[in-house]
Amino acid sequence: MKKLLALLLALVMVFALAACGGGDSKADDTPETEGPAEAPESEPEAEPEAEEPAAEVPNNEKPVIWFNRQPSNSTTGELDMDALTFNDKTYYVGFDAKQGAELQGQMIVDYLQSHGAGLDRNGDGIIGYVLCIGDVGHNDSIARTRGARLALGTAVPDASQGKTAVETIDDVNPTAVGTNLDGSSSEVQDGSITIDGTDYIVRELASQEMKNNSGATWDAPTAGNAINTWSASFGDQIDVVVSNNDGMGMAVFNAWSKDNNVPTFGYDANSDAVAAIADGYCGTITQNADVQAYLTLRVMRNALDNADIMTGISTPDAAGNVLSEDLYYYDDATRCFYALNGAVTADNYESFLDATAPNPAFNFQLSEEDAPVKKVWLDIFNSTDNFLNATYKPQLENYDGILNLEVEYIAGDGQTEANITDRLANPSEYDGFAINMVKTDNAASYTSKLQ
User: How far apart are CA 420 and CA 416, in angstroms?
Assistant: First the structure.
């Protein structure tokens, strides 16, 4: 009986344990290994917010740098302030035209006074000069014509501007005379100069705008043709040649004045003109193309970066680029940067033989982290202009890379704005615009493309 009770009790315990799930069907006591625990459900991680794409800058808010040809009225010379203040990132880069013009005039006078009476080739007591004018509607050309006349004493007041006396360079009449062999032209007067104790009359025998049949100005072949015409008519009366630039000056020098030993003076310090000083070309003016080219792209870079506009100019940038104060000045009222000029003569020309060499003081590479690559549209108004293509453009190319600017260079025909502006069909493709106009009155032809 006791055995039966014990068996029944054991059976009851087995069923109780099975019912509670606490037992194991294995004969040994080793618990079964469990699989990985199921992770508790949790909130899904939030997707990282996508960065907002940078807002596209409207074209009329992008930097506009006018260079070399200052927006202005071609008749009065008055600055076009609508163009110069097109937006808050608009500036002009050029050079001090009046300072350079006066410097050229003084260089000519210094030469005459130091080279004696032998300059009067036909012994008539008159130092006769001819003048090659670049563009009668260009402020730089106007200034150079005025500067030569002021220095040589042949200036008369500019009546078209209401001037009644010549007190400063701005008062001088810049109009071409055509021919003036007898000194009767109302556009100029006879001047005078004392050389080795002898007084000579100074007379502008002839002057004209060097404009070709297609309308291109500052035209060197036209200047070469003009000296051939002048010399055939009154060659022994020509004692000096004055040119508004070296392109025209060298055309005259090579066509006539070199062989006839006639002093010839130009402007721009192009490499071929500087080299020709060794062969008798008498002098030129450097407008510091390296400074102008650097400023053109440096101001663009600063405007693109929303940086202080004087970064890398009056104050060093992160790479160490900076300009010394004797190379330029800035006029805040008109938003214009001006490079200063220097005379290049037989005394110093060897220092200027390579007009395309970069200046080591501002030729340091910017990092792309500080200055990301940007795309710039830049035009040169005339593909045959000697200074712009042989000197200025190579200088631009010296500095575009170090400033991380991808520049698309557009070459114009020197005659019409449309030849250039038609190639600005998609301004949204560019981050900024550097503009060199055909005519200084035509700024709106470009800004209308950006509206």
Answer: 8
